[in-house]
Amino acid sequence: MLVLGFTGGLELISEERRGYDDVWLHDAACVLIEDGKVVCAIEEERLNRIKHTNKFPLESFRFCLKTHGIQLQDVDLIAFYSSIEYSEIWLKLLFLNYPQLTTIEPRVLFQNLLCRGLGYEIDPEKFCFVHHHYAHAMSAFALSGYDSSLITTFDGSGDNSSGMIFEGKGTMLEQIADIPIPKSLGGFYTNVISFLGYSQFDEYKVMGLAPYGNPEKYKDLFQTFYTLLPNGDYEIYEERLISLFDLGIPRRKGEPFTQTHKDIAASLQETLEDIVFHVIKHQKQETKHKNLCLAGGVAHNCTLNGKILRSGMFENIFVQPAAHDAGCALGAALYAYYQANPMAQKPSQLEHTYWGTDIGNSSDVVNQLMQWQDFIAFEKLDNVPEQTAKLLASGSVVGWVQGRSEFGPRALGNRSILGDPRPEENKTRINKMIKKREGYRPFAPSVLEEDVDEFFEVPHNQKHFPFMIFVVNVQEDKRQSLGAITHIDGTARIQTVSQKTNKKYWDLINSFKQLTGIPILLNTSFNNNVEPIVDSVEDAVVCFLTTELDYTVVGDYLLRKKDVSWWHYMSLRLFLPLHISLHEVKKFNFEGKLDNLFYIKNSYNHAFQREVSAEVFDVLKLANSEKTIESLLNKYGEAEEGKAKDIIHELIELWSQNLIILRP
């Protein structure tokens, strides 16, 4: 039986956003399961290159069908991550503001979107609808390997709930508590971090900032924001958050952090932990379950997960590695499958998430690299793990692209940037020059599963932490020697690596161990601060060329940058992504005169506007013509070489920000 699960918004990539908010529809994805087993899964952002994309996951549908060699008509069920009742309500509300909407029937809407995008007619009765939190819960329980478990799904909101508590038995879920929107832990966290200059999707940044603060400083204040009630219940008083202004003016994005901001982050983290522990402690006492499954956006709070792990409250804990809404595509598909096959056997515990795009065989890789030979030199390595380990041990930072991409928000050794975990300065260098992000942000270690307890404090019976979803303590005597991956509070967000699930990555870390005695590598996602994790070989090459990475390894090939001048870029072709549009308007300047203004907008964020020069605007209007940039600039002769050079530099900047596409 073939079941597709999907999440995401209601427009195709080039269509303008309608009236709904990112709070409701984001992190589009598609997952294909066959007889209960995941065969393909990918987040739409990896393909359309829009972080947390709120578009309909058309490319993800296309990927799953092509990868498995099937047609849409071959699929038995297509499951969406929201109940039919809720889907009908928000379509009706949307229709009130956008009466040009062609239907208020969800099945017909999705049928039309797939028909427009893929050219296939699909029986609307194949669509099924799964409650948001049931999808979250099933995504964790079905892949936990547990026969029974307590399950929590804390997040922002979904289907008019902010979370649910379940008991899982066999393949069935039994709901035992509903957490309404006013008690949303995800919403509470997001509202507080807005005072710190952050917004939705920045929650993990504040989790990393919290250890720099003292939670005791504002403990009394934060305790006025909530009350713990009997029977694992609680109240949150959002209206009281205004008292944060008594601490000073909120930080604006880009401004430095004060100690006040750090202390607020610490108090927020402690508050989250206090409430969650209150809930799960009560549910543990009531249900007597020895196992716990976690899903929902709050389950990406790895610090919280680590404290639950260390508490010993449960014998076993499984956290869905794609705990955010993209994981609901997985959960919706599994829930629909088990509803149709209640006697089906659940799989053993999830071991990996390498379900995405495959870079192909050696000849496939070479063919793609050859297109970039004016910009990169590449050579085939005789022993990839050993030779790459030598580069890392000598201080180089290396992009690492292998096999199929990971499903979910973590790079787990197939789309990673790797470095030596020992020198503390590596943390600063990678944050500033490669990731282009805040300097306080920590990096995670990938460690050989066999050696994990020598370097990290983990439960004596557990060595398997493959998803970078738990923060644990670094062994005290190892912290100084692991300066690049040890956070300020002596912790690290670990990923254990086994030969069984990723032999090439294991071999690389083992080769590094043979050279240095350290069975660990610094591992962060292969991307810069404005783009999703790279997916294709081209994505990797572009990120390599637009950051200060030293080397990149793709398959068996080592890539080096060539020393190129601005005029080398004249040979590239210029394209606009489908979500980008060009705008020219007249606006009054400070002198009251009309000026021409040229800018780029996108189809998913109404507030976004990137101004460009008139000359670059003229060039962008000629994009997608298959002509080289040189031919587009032919009106600038030798006498205006400086003008052409300025245009190229501006195009390169737009390219590095993921706003245009340059390719050979």
Report on the structure:
This protein has 20 helices and 27 strands. It is an alpha+beta fold and 664 residues long. The longest helix is centred in the middle third of the chain and has 29 residues.
List the helices and strands and how they pair.
Layout (H helix, E strand, L loop, with lengths): L1 E6 L21 E6 L2 E7 H5 L9 H11 L8 E4 L3 H14 L8 H13 L8 E3 L2 H10 L6 E6 L9 E7 L2 E8 L5 H9 L9 H7 L9 H4 L3 E3 L5 E3 L22 H29 L3 E5 L6 H10 L4 E4 L6 H15 L21 H9 L5 E5 L3 H10 L4 E4 L13 E5 L5 H10 L9 E5 L3 H4 E2 L12 E5 L16 E7 L5 H14 L3 E6 L11 H9 L5 E4 L2 E5 L11 E3 L4 E9 L5 E9 L7 E2 L2 H7 L8 H4 L8 H16 L4 E3 L1
Parallel strand pairs: 1-4, 4-5, 6-11, 11-12, 14-21, 16-19
Antiparallel strand pairs: 1-2, 2-3, 6-7, 7-8, 9-10, 13-22, 14-15, 15-20, 16-20, 17-18, 18-19, 21-22, 23-27, 24-25, 25-26
Which features would summarize this protein structure in a list?
single chain; 664 residues; alpha+beta; Nucleotidyltransferase, domain 5; DHBP synthase; 20 helices; globular
Summarize the structure.
By secondary structure, the protein is of the alpha+beta class.
CATH architecture of the largest domain: Alpha-Beta Complex
Kindly report the average pLDDT value. Answer: 95
CATH topology of the largest domain: DHBP synthase
Total beta-strand segments:
27
The amount of helix comes to 25-40%
